[in-house]
Amino acid sequence: MAQPTCHIKIINGNTCQPMTANINASAQAIKFLNTEIITVQPQTGPESIESFYDEYLAIPGILEQIILDTSSDAFILACWGDPGIEAAREITSKPVVGIAEASLYMANMLAAKWSVVTTLHRVRDMVEKTIQKTGLTARCASVRTTKLSVLDTEQDRTATLDILIKASQLAIQQDGAEAICLGCAGMSGLEKQLEARLGVPVIDAVAAAVKMAESLVHLGKSTSKHLTYRLPEQKEIKGYNPHFQAQSFYP
Amino acid sequence: MAQPTCHIKIINGNTCQPMTANINASAQAIKFLNTEIITVQPQTGPESIESFYDEYLAIPGILEQIILDTSSDAFILACWGDPGIEAAREITSKPVVGIAEASLYMANMLAAKWSVVTTLHRVRDMVEKTIQKTGLTARCASVRTTKLSVLDTEQDRTATLDILIKASQLAIQQDGAEAICLGCAGMSGLEKQLEARLGVPVIDAVAAAVKMAESLVHLGKSTSKHLTYRLPEQKEIKGYNPHFQAQSFYP
Amino acid sequence: MAQPTCHIKIINGNTCQPMTANINASAQAIKFLNTEIITVQPQTGPESIESFYDEYLAIPGILEQIILDTSSDAFILACWGDPGIEAAREITSKPVVGIAEASLYMANMLAAKWSVVTTLHRVRDMVEKTIQKTGLTARCASVRTTKLSVLDTEQDRTATLDILIKASQLAIQQDGAEAICLGCAGMSGLEKQLEARLGVPVIDAVAAAVKMAESLVHLGKSTSKHLTYRLPEQKEIKGYNPHFQAQSFYP
Amino acid sequence: MAQPTCHIKIINGNTCQPMTANINASAQAIKFLNTEIITVQPQTGPESIESFYDEYLAIPGILEQIILDTSSDAFILACWGDPGIEAAREITSKPVVGIAEASLYMANMLAAKWSVVTTLHRVRDMVEKTIQKTGLTARCASVRTTKLSVLDTEQDRTATLDILIKASQLAIQQDGAEAICLGCAGMSGLEKQLEARLGVPVIDAVAAAVKMAESLVHLGKSTSKHLTYRLPEQKEIKGYNPHFQAQSFYP
Amino acid sequence: MAQPTCHIKIINGNTCQPMTANINASAQAIKFLNTEIITVQPQTGPESIESFYDEYLAIPGILEQIILDTSSDAFILACWGDPGIEAAREITSKPVVGIAEASLYMANMLAAKWSVVTTLHRVRDMVEKTIQKTGLTARCASVRTTKLSVLDTEQDRTATLDILIKASQLAIQQDGAEAICLGCAGMSGLEKQLEARLGVPVIDAVAAAVKMAESLVHLGKSTSKHLTYRLPEQKEIKGYNPHFQAQSFYP
Amino acid sequence: MAQPTCHIKIINGNTCQPMTANINASAQAIKFLNTEIITVQPQTGPESIESFYDEYLAIPGILEQIILDTSSDAFILACWGDPGIEAAREITSKPVVGIAEASLYMANMLAAKWSVVTTLHRVRDMVEKTIQKTGLTARCASVRTTKLSVLDTEQDRTATLDILIKASQLAIQQDGAEAICLGCAGMSGLEKQLEARLGVPVIDAVAAAVKMAESLVHLGKSTSKHLTYRLPEQKEIKGYNPHFQAQSFYP
């Protein structure tokens, strides 16, 4: 039986266009033949997400990309931290996949323990909370932060690779990691080189999420509208465009 | 020694003005003599917070009330769920208190087990996640949700009281609760009547938070700027007013 | 770019041939075009797995299906309980997916809380341990066992459906489930009818695992051979055929 | 409205008088104007608490200070470990605050992770159990013990300061602490100097507890007498003074 | 090889003599031939332990029975709650066994899940904390409290049996218990009748502890004096007899 | 009263005969006078268990030793990892003790924190899962793996002792261990020498299990047949001898 085309919209959580292009390249390279992917970035929000402040200011713009969408079969939130994902699941019944959760599930099937290697030291608490939300804290060997900003990961790939290798080797040798999860969408595309150097599986979160979204679409699944993720209650929402008003979501 | 005046700004998480007035009344009634309290509501965001979607759209407006402030010694986030509190702690070094955490700490000092009695059934997962974030899940006897919307709690106090009594009695008799935490700022002011009827301590989260904020100010404490809560990195934030740009926070 | 054919071997954990046929039908119906699936059953082991005893006696036969394989790109363990999966990951570097873990990851992306609805009451502890192993216990609303034996689920589909509907409705109404995971490979194929009746997502574990296995293959991933899942040490293994001797796995 | 005077009795858990004086000085310096504080020490019990043995022998004398009291509105147990606090909550309906719990709640509102820096190495397990009892283990970066005895902390303030600085710096640099909780009442009064040297919030547990006790009194709260903390059953208690007999607590 | 006589002292936590006799009878009936058991009660403390207050007042008298002992090879704390056990382990290097922990270890080897059936409703929190301290909370199906006081269990054996049967049946039928732990030393001696009626293993905590103490003695084990359980520091302890002074423990 | 003879069968999990002899020697040395012990090894399975693969292939042979037994009062699974213990508890109502669980319970009564010192680095995950299954993870200071294979522990006792001393010292000095559990049956017999060198309790798991099995027999306890551990359902089990068919277990 021929399978119908599956349309996936990937939403870069950051407003940085080069990162959108990088994410898109990784996604296009890994998608199934009959998957159509478009990668977008929010109209509003920070260039990069490196603090809770950045994350919260990014969320309305991320949600807007879902609200205004009319044709996608599934959405991917492409920022490790899965910003606003519970709200995304409220405003659409299409599957919504976070790249953080997708990468951790993949890692869990390949290794007994894994580490997350990521950007600035200050994000440690954000990363730990994200892992906690998936429930997989006990499988996490460590979180290794670095001096890399999110934008660094895009702009100097060689230096980035070097820093990630060093941090990953520490995770493997000192913390007991048996696989590495790259904790930033900006690191997408480096996984093969890292894997060659490290000798353990390295998970690109964007690629993992593309596979998860394709899977949910082909399984014909929708987000549960039974309780937590039902449509938001209708009410006035001040200072946001009309399409943000919950009544716009109701049939 | 005469204690200096302590200025506290309470930020109603909702844009519903009558709730702001109710919160303010509770706060003024419980404050110390030399505390000055102003209660505000965000310029933007939903009338009431009853979903993750509502919560995330409320956060930028909540944070703006901190950004534009020049004179407060501490801030209170007056929505049970403590929306955006990590970001609030990044953008100011003044203490920030969430009403949820404050009420749970108070309950913990008064009872071996407590329940949270709150609004719509759909918020159960939000409430459980808030309790989880404080670390006090093991002390929670149950979360009892009701058919009350947030605005109901303001508009029909008699019916609200009735529903809260019934839900609380079930928590006490069936779940082992020995105290009740009211899980919505809109329920503020009903705690005395409930306590009289139930015979166990009933915690008004707004009042609890006022005491916590006063305490932190008098202790002379500031939020740690060492790692997680340091000022957000400077970068372009699209579609937000200039005062949202992180460079505006830097000295 | 044309994607290469992906060969997946599904190993029914039970030696019951009709269940193999049922699993195969579900898998063939959901696979991608360029996936080739064969479904097998062990040469040795119990007709059905309903106790720890059954499970442990099934494992050598399950592992043999991997040992003797020369052409598959990935393996699926098709018994909810993922019997012997850590050993399976030791003896091959090809991805190995358990249907239990796969179904729970899918459920986690669709619902805030889910329940597992499954066979005989005696398996409750086995099911709870399986959920614990994935780390997702906190997301599980309940385990609902029934009077259904594994073979019942194959032999009387109407009665099975009826019992599953009743158990699922209790999970939704009393336990707070927002999605249902079917906790037995024998229930594969009933998910659409159940979903229509229940109004919440119902996860067929076999279909979920097919998608996970395809995903891992297309991502080009191998099981980590760094520590826990490296090849078994070489030694004498008494009473097993020569192909079970670890030296047969070494290049 | 003028607020009525609030009377707080602080009970030094140790029978060492100079520590009582030090605790009192810290408390008097931080109290609100209309708070009256008296600080006492038990008639019986060890000079200092540095083992479970010390702690258990201290408890009857601590409880006696509550039993014989007729005028206080709240009690503070001034020994990090909150010795006998559940019993204290049984024998009075006045709020009882432990300095350990109070300091941890304050730390939780100021930092994402904190460490407890304390006395002799042997108390590590006691300290970990105290943190566990509050439920905040997941927020604790580390427990750093030292070679300081409790009496050392009183007798050589310069050496104490020095040792605490070194231990705190290790907690910050190696363990990820973003605030420091001083884990002994005898360290009260050193927090400002430590804060100046360390650059992160340092919590004096005595001061934190004074604020918590004032808060509970001004909120008009009583300990729940519903189940766990109801008055002890009446019975003969051998070898204790008549005022220890439970019937003396009954109205 | 002939085994040397093993001397065990059982310390009833309560000062109620008939309970001492009952405990002793159970212990004598189950001991090995070459075990000598004496059962004592404290000189000071409450008739029965039914609150945290009772427990803390009992501890000094319990510890005194260890301090004054010169000939025992091991000690058993015969009050479900294991009162003061950490202190007991500090003041002697002989093994100290709590009846609660002993009974839970035995239950864990006989059943996948067990319940504790015990006395007054108010002790629920105490019992849950005791289970938590052993680490076995996840194996506990439920705690079932009753209207039985500790002394009731001694005085009316028929009524006690009846109430325990009813509570145990609820634990088995509604909570999933597959064995029952009797949560009070006073219930010792009823386990055979209960087992006959319930059809699941019923653990008498006193008997379990006798076996554990004998085991530790025959294994030749001493309590670790390395850190937590080393001898208490020497210091003045006011209001206690000279034998309570720590220097009396030092060689 | 003269106690009846207690017959215990110890099942070495490995098929290595010298290890059986070593286990037997340890057991005979520690048993009570009226205990009769026989130590056997499976007819089938690996020489030593050092991977999940080894463990799963060992289990049928281990279970067979129980199935074919007609005279033992209790069984001991003598491989740290307690392989197949849930199944063992299903096929007999006689008590079944695992050496891992037995050693951890003993350690828990002697020390606040303990470490497991064991064989090859690759078994870390297996060991952690075994500890997790007992529920005692929070009491575990660390797992220290070494370069010792299981057979090494038998063949070169001097080198083994040396390596165990070094690993244990690291556990004590760096991880906070206050006792050591030897994590392999092959290490049985070295505990006295280790204890002398380390100065903390060292638990031989075989000896611990002998005491636990004797205890359960003398207490007259049987495994609960209520739910999880009831006899396996009757069904065809292909490729196994007739005595493996469940109907052979039924009366």
TrEMBL record, chains A, B, C, D, E, F:
It comes from the Bacteria. This is Hydantoin racemase. It catalyses: D-5-benzylhydantoin = L-5-benzylhydantoin; a D-5-monosubstituted hydantoin = a L-5-monosubstituted hydantoin. GO terms for molecular function: amino-acid racemase activity; hydantoin racemase activity. Belongs to the HyuE racemase family. Its EC number is 5.1.99.5.
